[in-house]
Design goal:
mainly alpha; 10 helices; 84% helix
């Protein structure tokens, strides 16, 4: 039997993978959780797979708080510290100490809640998660509940919050009451009455604070409801006004259309007549241009024929001129040859004459010698 492969770092790896699941949007959580469980089961880690399979998908509000825990932990810690300071100021006020600091501490807590709400909503939008007004209001309530609760850090579950967190209510105030110091018991009815009255006053103060908080929340809720009602009424009024304006605009357009229909028809008839006249004029102009083009074509053809004939005559004249030039060249060559022959004949005659003269001189010399010899 094939043994299951051990996981590299055991629980730490699984915790890291679960943290990665809770970093996903609620839409992507279920598919990723099922895929992780199937992979773990396929690797033989049945216990881990069962644990992963049982993980609950966080709601939109919890997802926003988890984003704050992961991405802006310092801002979330500042909110929790503001809640700690507000509870400490309430405890001091119940003791009758530093009552003037209570309002500033509560205002700081409320501002921290508002800032954290806006920041969480922005992180959700960056993660492509829709944030409606209702979701943002639930974010604010949950963050305020975490700030007001003494164990708010534990409720965060290390960034794996699943649902909205309810306000702590009277339990916190009772815890504050329990934290108040009590006077040491003394003998006598007067001391017991005094302690009893002190406890009753403390309870009354706690109830008043709780009632005041409840009234503030109720008033805030009523204000929100009134604001939403006003917004809806304004939206409905705007929509009705828009519809009325649209109906009036349609009526005006229809009246204007009816009024201008006849004018348009007259204008269209006039345009049709003008178009017909332009068409006839264009047809006549086209015929004239065509006739002119035909005449110009005929004239151009005749001119081309004359040019061609003139070019033929010029070519014939050039050929005759060339032939005459060739005959003249031949005549010049023949004359030059005859002159050279005559010059050669003349030179031969001069040479023959010179030879004859020399022969005569030789004969004369011989005759003289002969006469001299005969003497």
């Amino acid at each position: 039997m094939k043994r299951a492969r051990k996981r590299g770092s055991g629980t730490q790896d699984l915790d890291a993978e679960i943290d990665a699941l809770y970093a996903l949007s609620p839409v992507a959580f279920t598919a990723a959780r099922n895929a992780l469980g199937a992979r773990l089961r396929g690797e033989g880690h049945k216990t881990e797979a069962t644990k992963v399979k049982g993980l609950k998908r966080p709601g939109p509000t919890a997802f926003g708080v988890n984003l704050l825990h992961r991405q802006r932990h310092d801002d979330l810690e500042a909110l929790l510290e503001a809640g700690d300071e507000a509870r400490a100021a309430q405890l001091s006020a119940l003791k009758g100490e530093h009552v003037e600091d209570l309002r500033a501490a509560l205002d700081a807590r409320n501002k921290a809640v508002t800032d954290a709400t806006h920041l969480a909503a922005e992180l959700m939008r960056e993660a492509k998660v829709s944030v409606s007004a209702a979701v943002e209001d639930r974010l604010r309530r949950t963050l305020q509940a975490l700030a007001d609760s003494p164990n708010g850090r534990d409720l965060l579950a290390g960034g794996r919050l699943l649902t909205d967190v309810d306000p702590p209510g009277l339990s916190v105030l009772m815890g504050l009451e329990a934290a108040l110091p009590t006077r040491p018991r003394r003998a006598g009815d007067r001391d017991r009455e005094l302690r009893k009255k002190q406890v009753e006053q403390q309870k009354a103060t706690a109830r008043k604070l709780a009632e005041a908080k409840a009234r503030r929340e109720q008033h805030a809720e009523e204000d929100r409801e009134r604001a939403e009602a006003k917004a809806r009424a304004r939206a409905e009024a705007d929509e009705a006004q828009t519809k009325e304006e649209a109906a009036q605009a349609r009526a005006r357009r229809k009246a204007e259309a009816d009024k201008t229909r006849s004018e348009k028809e007259v204008e269209q008839q006039r345009k049709r007549r003008e178009a017909e006249q332009r068409r006839k004029q264009q047809t006549a102009e086209a015929k004239a241009r065509k006739h002119q083009q035909v005449e110009e074509t005929r004239q151009i053809a005749a001119l081309r024929r004359r040019v061609k004939a003139a070019e033929g005559d010029a070519a014939e004249a050039r050929r005759a001129q060339t032939e005459a030039e060739r005959a003249a060249a031949r005549a010049r060559k023949e004359a030059e040859r005859t002159a050279r022959l005559a010059e050669k004949a003349e030179q031969g005659a001069r040479k023959a004459e010179a030879k004859a003269t020399k022969v005569e001189e030789d004969l004369a010399d011989l005759e003289r010698e002969l006469r001299d010899a005969l003497r």
